[in-house]
UniProtKB/TrEMBL annotation:
Species lineage: Eukaryota, Viridiplantae, Streptophyta, Embryophyta, Tracheophyta
Gene3D superfamilies attached to this UniProt entry: Ribonuclease Inhibitor
Organism annotation: Camelina sativa (False flax)
Domain of life: Eukaryota
PANTHER family for this protein: DISEASE RESISTANCE PROTEIN, LEUCINE-RICH REPEAT-CONTAINING PROTEIN
Transmembrane intervals: none
Residue intervals of the Disease resistance protein Roq1-like winged-helix domain: 34-97
Signal peptide: none
Gene: LOC104727699
Entry keyword set: Leucine-rich repeat, Repeat
Protein name: Disease resistance protein At4g11170
Pfam families for this protein: LRR_3 (PF07725), WHD_ROQ1 (PF23282)
């Protein structure tokens, strides 16, 4: 074809399988061994656009060598890994997978659903309301990845469970269900294989009773689940790394027993939990590096739950002072307390500190000598009423 004809043909070639292109892609796929084919199919159907580390975690106990398999797929140009460690697969390869599988999963029992390993559904694309049977997943014993997600600009609830939900497969490793429409999880749901649990904007009031086998759980997000009043028992979630409870507006307290064993927890985000009054003070989470409590407007006491913290946000809380024990936080780099109207006094900070934001607080005087800023190893910036001070640099 001429150059002009190729230019006109490009949009179609980018988005639809041409016969010759399809044959080339099929040869690439057929050349993979069975384990690498499985990793390829998982990425095409479920994990395109996800972080590499997350995919490795989710596939870890499926007898799949995910790390080597992903390298094989990169070498064959079947996926690309961006500089920021996200997996990217071309839309033509995803179309090829749909053709290879040729499966249309229905949300009702039967229809060959016994072979289904994963379901991923963008609920924002559903035009009409969908009603799901309470036994919808009973004939999916091998289901390991269930993701029902939506665009959060879309407020409409699309999936309904009029009779509740009696069953979820015990092999589930990923459970992501935005706007989950009922008050509780199935009473007999086994969580021992679950790696990720995401139930944002859910109607949940309680997740489970008692102590559950949660040793595989690494990620948990219940953000904007406004009916939840307390954290479920996480005594055995000893491998949990990230816990997001943003905008859980009815959560009042966090019992020590709920989080004291979370020695691998790196991120705790409870921002905008507007009824939260305190956090336990008799624990020291060894791995916690990020604590976000911004917007917890009833929080009056300073939450020193880890001396290993690096980044802390307490903006728009009701805290009145920073305790002298803050000096024990030898890794603390950034402290954000903007909008803390009750904050009047600043004590000395650890020498690791680089940024303190006390803009729009009740602090009137900063006693630089008392804060021992001259001993800090790195340039220090203090944000105060929209002005920045760098005492070491001036």
């Amino acid at each position: 074809m001429s150059k002009e004809e190729w230019i006109k043909a490009l949009p179609r070639l980018r988005t639809s399988l041409n016969g010759k292109i399809e044959k080339v892609l099929e040869v690439c796929y057929d050349g993979l061994d069975e384990e690498d084919k499985a990793i390829f199919l998982h990425n095409a159907c479920l994990f395109n656009g996800e972080k590499v580390d997350r995919v490795k975690q989710l596939l870890a106990k499926r007898a799949l060598d995910a790390e080597f398999g992903l390298k094989v797929l990169v070498d064959r140009s079947l996926i690309h890994i961006c500089a920021d460690r996200y997996i990217v697969m071309h839309c033509l390869l995803q179309q090829l997978v749909k053709k290879l599988l040729g499966i249309n999963v229905l949300m009702t029992p039967g229809h060959g659903t016994e072979i289904v390993l994963g379901i991923s559904l963008d609920m924002s694309e559903i035009e009409d309301q969908v009603y799901i049977s309470e036994n919808a997943f009973k004939k999916m014993p091998n289901l390991q990845f269930l993701r029902l997600y939506k665009n959060f600009l879309d407020d409409a609830v699309k999936l309904y469970l009029p009779q509740g939900l009696d069953y979820l497969p015990r092999k589930l490793r990923l459970l992501h269900w935005d706007s989950y429409p009922i008050k509780c999880m199935p009473s007999k749901f086994c969580l021992e294989y679950l790696v990720e649990l995401t139930m944002r904007e859910s109607k949940l009031e309680k997740l489970w009773e008692g102590i559950q086998p949660l040793t595989s759980l690494k990620y948990m997000d219940l953000s904007a689940s406004t009916n939840i009043e307390d954290i479920p028992n996480l005594l055995r979630a000893t491998n949990l790394e990230k816990l997001y409870l943003r905008s859980c507006e009815n959560m009042v307290t966090v019992p020590s027993s709920a989080i004291q064993n979370l020695d691998k927890l790196k991120v705790l985000d409870m921002s905008c939990c507007i009824k939260l009054k305190n956090l336990p003070t008799n624990i020291n989470l060894e791995s916690l590096s990020v604590l976000n409590l911004r917007g917890c407007s009833r929080l009056k006491t300073f939450p020193l739950i880890s001396t290993h913290i690096q980044f802390m946000s307490l903006g728009e809380t009701a805290i009145e002072k920073v305790p002298s024990l803050i000096k024990l936080c030898s890794r603390l780099v950034s402290m954000e307390m903007a909008g803390c109207k009750n904050l009047k006094i600043l004590t000395s900070f650890p020498t690791s500190m680089e940024i303190v934001d006390i803009s729009w607080t009740g602090v009137e005087v900063i006693d630089l000598e008392h804060m021992h800023i001259e001993h800090m190893r790195k340039p220090y910036v203090c944000v105060f009423e929209n002005r920045c001070y760098s005492p070491i640099l001036r």
